[in-house]
């Protein structure tokens, strides 16, 4: 492959990446709920590509902790969050709501919705598949604070 073709491909990928309009939004900044109940924390996203979405939980004076992710109808969860925490991508409304069941006061935390776009094209130089994801702030991040009360 000649040198100018390599440069053209690199420039094309660089410009294509910057121009994408990928974003997430959590409109509700603070939510309250009662112990034992269920809460849904909403998150909407915009991307032209197949989204990879994540939820993280951050408790006071702690680093964000990975909870779960979804790519289409597949994904995985951290074992700590497997039973009471769930989220599914709704492509029609472009939303990724997190549902927490059987709330406890210890669920009070900041919850982050994170978008990592996944690009799949037929041309091999434009393929970007999910790889290891170690930092919650890779693309767009919004947060919601959940306060759980007991009575």
TrEMBL record:
UniProt protein name: T-cell receptor alpha/delta variable 30.0.6
Residue span(s) of domain Ig-like: 22-127
Keyword annotations of the record: Adaptive immunity, Immunity, Immunoglobulin domain, Receptor, Signal, T cell receptor
Signal peptide interval: 1-20
PANTHER family, sorted: T CELL RECEPTOR ALPHA VARIABLE 16, T-CELL RECEPTOR ALPHA CHAIN V REGION
One Gene Ontology cellular component: T cell receptor complex
PROSITE patterns assigned: IG_LIKE (PS50835)
Organism domain of life: Eukaryota
Keyword Signal appears in the UniProt entry: yes
GO BP annotations listed: adaptive immune response
Classification via SMART domains: IG, IGv
Alphabetized Pfam families for the sequence: V-set (PF07686)
